[in-house]
Amino acid sequence: MLLELLRRAGAAANFLDKGAAPADIRDFVKRYAPDLLFLSCTMNECAPAAVELVCGLRIDSPDLTIICGGRGGLADGSELLKAGASEICETRSDVRRAVRLYALRRAASRTAGLGRQHFRDKGQTTNAAPDAV
């Protein structure tokens, strides 16, 4: 469901099979450099492997936003956060909210960057906001 929502919103979205090895997931992230990664850990006994994967992903891609969920993710949420998860979501509504907030932050940072770039292109060297120039 989330995958379809992202695709409808114009995002390039991929689903890696539940049987994907951690090394394959890390390779995928290195190759395609996504902005967001959603990890669902449905079984408590898999939580340590999820923690290890998140830790490795954080090392490989420090700016990657990692959103975790699932029963195992909720049970070991504090460890996932320590490993580098950006957020632990309990419900679908939590995931939708996290995606919306990410999109808003990204749009705001891009807008701020465009404003600064516009003034550089016009020959001004200030980093001040447009209202302050």
Describe this structure as you would to a colleague:
With 133 residues, the chain is mostly helical. It has one domain (2-105): Cobalamin-binding domain (Rossmann fold). It is built from six helices and three strands; from the N terminus they run H-H-E-H-E-H-H-E-H. It has helices at 2-8, 22-32, 47-60, 71-75, 77-83, 92-121; strands at residues 36-40, 65-69, 87-88. It has a three-stranded parallel β-sheet. The longest helix is centred in the last third of the chain and has 30 residues, at 92-121. The relative contact order is 0.12.
Report the order of strands and helices. HHEHEHHEH
How can the largest sheet be summarized?
Answer: 3 strands, parallel
The low-confidence parts are: 118-133
**Portion in strands:** 5-15%
Task: Give me the secondary-structure category.
Answer: mainly alpha
CATH fold type = Rossmann fold
Question: Taking Cα atoms only, what radius of gyration do you get, to the nearest Å?
Answer: 18 Å
The geometry reads as globular
Assigned CATH class: Alpha Beta
Figure out the total of helices.
Answer: 6
Distance between the termini: 46 Å
- Please give the domain count: 1
Helix content: 55-70%
Architecture, CATH level 2? Answer: 3-Layer(aba) Sandwich
- How much is the average pLDDT? 82
Largest sheet: spatial strand order: 1-2-3
CATH superfamily: Cobalamin-binding domain
- Total strands: the figure is 3
